[in-house]
Write a structure and sequence with these properties.
The structure holds two protein chains of two kinds. Chain A is mainly α. In chain A, about 85% of the residues lie in helices and about 0% in strands. Chain B has a domain of about 220 residues: Single-stranded right-handed beta-helix, Pectin lyase-like (Pectate Lyase C-like, 3 Solenoid). Chain B contains five helices and 41 strands. In chain B, the strands form five sheets. Chain B has a 13-stranded parallel beta sheet with strand order 4-7-10-13-16-19-22-25-28-31-34-37-39, with no helix packed on it. A twelve-stranded parallel beta sheet of chain B has the order 3-6-9-12-15-18-21-24-27-30-33-36, with helices on one face. The chains are: A mainly alpha, B mainly beta.
Chain lengths: ~270, ~450
């Protein structure tokens, strides 16, 4: 972690700085169409799950799908949009006596907090229809971690790109790669006898992908996959036994890495 | 006359407490004969009321009598052989708690061992025994509304009957491992049995059929056993409205023909290799309107021919339908496949010899793009269900980590539009839309009104 990032983090503990950053982000979110649409869809999804799900497990499975396809994408778009929204103001902002990474970190934390609130619209309605509190609570936290990861990815893409279009192309391409690309490559690679000799290597590829980690954790938690079906190697066995902890870890690592990249980019922009 | 006198004497006696052979206090009529003596003294077709308290077994019933237990009546075997052996036709056991059979699998020890016809075993509780009810070469037995609880532990002080086999691996572990337990109801070479309304748990297999034909199994609940139904070499049997849940496998039906399996529930049989319903080498049978939900593998077919699979709900399983090799002539119609992580597994088997629609009516597959221009509830486009993993499940088990992946859904979607070469799939020429049943109901209603 760079010295500037450390200083930025310490500044966030300063009440005035944090308040200024968070207030700014909340106000921007209030007028952000992404958040309007996302909030509306989250509420509709939550009510639909409450009304139409056959049982508690169906609710969990529905939320898993929503998190995988929509929450991750909206988080990424929110990150991209937020980074690019104030591109014109960077010169002015950077005259403030704050290290650049503090903008990135503050923005990330504020957006994550906003997502935490918006996701409640998705997760609260099923609870009124009798969904299991512990299951939904765990899924909520995991979905929030997933959202934070893709917020960080979106911010990184937003800060790296020269304009909004480029940022969207880069961000969505990365999302498609993580959502479909990695697994398609893995599926076809699994047919190759050379890979079959090293199953742990293959498993590692999936473990490093936050979307795969999230999916595996949620599916095992919902008992959709019998654990013994997959854990034929030591690493696979360890993953199935610690899927929740692993996902939390990989989400934090991805978020931190993306934030670092974005912060480095901000510093370079200064030069 | 003497028997009647004995019966009167037995019933007029006051109950008193005496020591049982194993030290447990027993309650039986004072100055009266033992239950075995009363049975021996009874006339054919007499009714013997069994008073509350523990009555020492083992009993041997060699004449047609009715044993009716009053509340709290228990017949306890001596821990060796059978608690009750029925070797006469037309015997009835009702309202008893029956315990304490031996534990020798090689001797087929059972709480109730029946070698005669037309026995009626009703409203009993059977526990602490190897097999619950064992039918050997009998006909017309009725087993109704009993509760059978398997023996899960051995007494720590008891000498293991089969040392080192029946117990867990630890010396101090008294758990009786499931494959060393007995079956709830065990039938061999029998016929015309009626098994209705029983609850069976913690046994090895719930109901075991071997060379047993023309039986009716109805409204039973079987849970926490190895196989709910373990069934071999038995034909023309009917299974209606039973529930098999929380077992290692719901039901395994093998080497049999001409069965009717209707309205049963195979639910939540989880764990590796846990099946809802296995059909192995079984032909010309009907599977109708069963619910097969939340199992590791819902329905498994292997070497089965000419079966009719109609109107079943196969939902929320890890694998919905596993289709093994050498199966042909099976007809699937009006089945619902939803929320299975893998609707179909064919491996590398050739499944083209089976029909996925009968008389133009196929099955309901989740996420199907519904194109129904003539509004008959049947999709105008065929449905291709992809087995994304194929033989990789066997060759590379870690591939299971891709279950539920968006990439697999993408492939499934693509395969709907154009066949992906090299991937195994089944094709339903007339898949149903979600409105099919509503349309059918409307048509039936209209027909009724016309009539």
């Amino acid at each position: 972690m760079t010295t500037k990032m450390k200083r930025a983090l310490s500044l966030l503990f300063d009440r005035n700085t944090a308040r200024a950053l968070f207030t700014r982000e909340f106000r921007l979110a209030l007028i952000n169409r992404y958040f309007h649409v996302f909030s509306a869809l989250a509420l509709i999804g939550g009510i639909a799950a409450a009304l139409f799900s056959e049982d508690a497990n169906a609710t969990g499975f529905f939320h898993l799908q929503v998190a995988l396809y929509f929450v991750s994408l909206f988080a990424l778009l929110a990150g991209v949009g937020s980074a690019q929204a104030e591109r014109e103001e960077w010169q002015l902002l950077f005259t403030q006596p704050l290290p650049r990474p503090s903008y990135v970190i503050g923005k990330f934390l504020a957006l994550a907090l906003i997502f935490a609130g918006v996701l409640l619209l998705l997760f609260l309605p099923p609870l009124f229809a009798g969904a299991d509190l512990s299951m939904m609570g765990l899924l909520y936290l995991q979905t929030l971690l997933l959202a934070a990861t893709f917020l960080a990815c979106g911010l990184a893409a937003g800060y790296f790109a020269h304009d909004r279009a480029q940022a969207l192309i880069v961000g969505v391409s990365a999302w498609l790669l993580l959502l479909f690309g990695v697994d398609l490559v893995a599926l076809f690679a699994a047919r190759w006898s050379g890979i079959q000799k090293f199953p742990d290597l293959w498993v590692t590829l999936l473990m490093l992908n936050p979307l795969d980690s999230f999916r595996i954790e949620a599916l095992f938690a919902l008992q959709q996959i019998p654990a013994e079906a997959a854990n034929k190697t030591p690493l696979a066995g360890w993953w199935t036994a610690h899927a929740g902890a692993w996902f939390a870890g990989i989400a934090v690592v991805w978020s931190a890495a993306m934030m670092t990249l974005a912060s480095l980019r901000m510093n370079r922009w200064e030069e | 006359m003497a028997a009647v006198l004995l019966w009167v004497v037995a019933f007029s006696c006051r109950a008193s407490v005496s020591d049982a052979p194993d030290g447990v206090s027993q309650k039986r009529p004072t100055n009266a004969a033992t239950l075995q003596e009363r049975i021996d003294a009874a006339a054919p077709n007499d009714t013997i009321r069994v008073e509350p308290g523990v009555h020492a077994g083992a009993l041997l019933i060699t004449k047609p009598v009715n044993l009716i237990g009053e509340k709290g009546a228990e017949i306890r075997g001596n821990g060796s052989g059978n608690a009750i052996t029925i070797s006469a036709d037309n015997v009835t056991l009702t309202g008893l708690r029956i315990t304490g059979s031996g534990l020798r699998l090689s001797d087929d020890d059972a709480a109730v061992f029946i070698t005669a016809n037309r026995a009626r075993i009703e409203n009993n509780v059977i526990a602490d025994s190897l097999h619950g009810i064992y039918l050997k070469k009998v006909s017309g037995t009725q087993i109704l509304n009993n509760r059978i609880e398997g023996k899960t532990t051995l007494s720590p002080s008891a000498e293991p009957v089969e040392k080192g086999i029946g117990q867990g691996s630890e010396n101090c572990d008294t758990t009786l491992v499931s494959n060393r337990r007995g079956n709830g109801i065990h039938q061999w070479n029998s016929e015309r049995t009626t098994i209705r309304g029983n609850e069976i748990s913690e046994t090895r297999d719930g109901i075991y059929f071997s060379f047993t034909n023309n039986c009716l199994v109805e409204d039973n609940l079987i849970h926490h056993v190895r196989y709910g139904l373990h069934y071999m070499y038995s034909d023309n049997n009917v299974f209606l409205n039973n529930t098999f849940t929380e077992n290692a496998a719901g039901a395994a039906i093998m080497f049999s023909k001409e069965l009717l399996v209707r309205g049963n529930r195979f639910i939540n049989n989880r764990g590796h290799r846990a099946y809802g319903l296995i059909f192995q080498s079984s032909d010309r049978s009907k599977l109708e309107q069963n619910e097969i939900t939340s199992n590791a593998v819902g329905l498994s077919f292997n070497q089965c021919n000419d079966n009719e699979i109609t109107g079943n709900r196969v939902t929320q399983n890890y694998i919905g339908l596993r289709f093994g090799s050498n199966s042909g002539g099976n007809r699937f119609t009006q089945n619902v496949f939803t929320r299975n992580l893998h609707p179909i597994e064919t491996g590398s088997s050739d499944v083209s010899g089976n029909q996925w629609a009968v008389n133009g009516v196929g099955n309901f597959w989740e996420n199907d793009l519904e194109v129904d221009l003539d509004h008959d509830g049947i999709n105008d486009l065929p449905h291709r269900e992809l087995d994304s993993f194929g033989i990789l499940r066997r060759d590379f088990p870690a591939v299971a980590f891709l279950s539920g992946s968006p990439a697999l859904k993408l492939l499934r979607f693509a395969n709907e539009r154009a066949v992906i070469p090299g991937m195994s799939a089944i094709e339903d020429p007339s898949p149903l839309t979600s409105r099919f049943w509503k349309i059918q109901a409307q048509r039936s209603h209209a027909l009724l009104r016309e009539k």
